[in-house]
Every structure is written in structure tokens, then in C-alpha cells.
């Protein structure tokens, strides 16, 4: 199968935030190649139950990503990435940093403090956006730093919105120090039990995520045309944080969502209208 066709077949679920980000992208094939890689990497942590098998799969993918430096690779995804500009040292390093977030998921189910959590969010969310920008020859330090903030804010929002889902799987991404500060027992998170204390902690993390997103969105105004999909994702997750606020931050009980019309309108406004 053609590498681009392979990546398109593994594209984001229709109606998801990533679906709308890609839909309005002028370079869909590049976006789909990156999405396919990140989706396959995270499938290792979410779908492979045997720890040794998961570690071997991740190591294989990291070797495959490293092969991009020579513009090679045996997998259709890496062949697509090579064709769309991800072969530079900087892009490969960013992709390897993203794979490091998966390594964390395979070995760690708790975070001690906010510093550890933000480092994880930077790898999980910031690194892929930086790789995308580098593939488009955006290498200004200020722009890459803003994309790290944007991706970190998106990753933090995603973790916040699925606290209950992750808790039921035995994972707590909310830092131990903050659980203690807000007097939220770890058992409440693991048992997906909602409380006023957990809502207060979620509200604090939502503010932190929103601050990262707002800072990045403002800084990237001059790169709007070039990083449109990333900005659409940022706007959509900003809207999801507002929806969770309106829902009372019941993050242990369910994940909030946006209607397809609101997602489409947000993506279109971000793409077409001046800010």
C-alpha cells in the first residue's frame, strides 16, 4: 500500500478534535503521517498488556524513527514521514522525545509533582508539534518554544478531561503533591469518585492548561498559516476546558465533549478569520 494511503486509513476518528484539525490543514498528508505515528506509539501503552512485549514494540519504533535520519525506514508510516520532511536531526529528536512519553507510560503510573507532569506533557504534546513545525522549516526558537507550550497545554487538558477513565485503569496523572494539597485521596481517583475537593483541583489544573494555551496561541499569531492544525487543536481544547468548567469539573464521572457543529465552527474560525 502507498505510505500516504496507509496513514490516511489510520487517520483520526471522524468527529474527533484531531479530525477537524487535519480537515482544515493545507498539508493533510504530513499531518496524517505524524498522527499515524503518534497513534501507533500510544497504542503500545494502551493496548499491549505484556510489559516485555510493549517495551520491545517501543524499542522497535524508536529504532525506526532513528532510521529517518538517513531517510529510510521499513514501515509505511516512517516512509511517509521521510517523504514529508521529518528526516532532519531536529525533527527526529523531537519524535524520539515524543516516544519518551510512551516509555514513561510503560514504567510509571504516578507523578510526584507538577514539574514531572509538565515534563511528561511537553514530551507527549509539545514534541510532536515541534516535529511538525520543523518538517515545515519553522525553526525559530520563539516559535518552537510556543509550540511546546501549546502542546503541553493540550496534553494537560487531555489528561484532566479523562481523570476518571485513567483512574479506572490504575493511572493517576494528577501530581501527588497537589492531591495532598487539595486533600484528594488517591483512592478517589482510582475509584472514579467525584468530590468537591477533586473539582477544585481540576479547576486549578484547567487554569494552568488554559494559561499555557492562551500564551501559545497569542505567540503563534504570526505563524497562523503555517501551523494551522496545531492552532485548531489548541482552540478546541480551550473550548473543552470551558465545557468542563460549565459542567462543574466532574472529571471523575465523565468526559465532556463538544458538538460537531461547535467543533467545525471553532476549526473554521481559527482557520479563516483574523484573531
Q: Can you offer a commentary on this structure?
A:
This protein has a single domain (3-272), classed as Farnesyl Diphosphate Synthase. It is globular, with a radius of gyration of 18 Å. It is mainly α. The protein contains 14 helices and no strands. Helix 3 (28-47) packs antiparallel against helix 5 and helix 12 (196-219) runs antiparallel to helix 13.
Task: Walk me through the topology.
Blueprint: H1 3-9, H2 17-23, H3 28-47, H4 51-66, H5 76-83, H6 89-107, H7 114-135, H8 141-161, H9 163-168, H10 176-181, H11 186-190, H12 196-219, H13 228-246, H14 260-272
Helix pairs in contact: 1-3, 1-5, 2-13, 3-5, 3-6, 4-6, 6-7, 7-8, 8-12, 8-13, 12-13, 13-14
In short:
With 275 residues, the protein is an all-alpha fold.
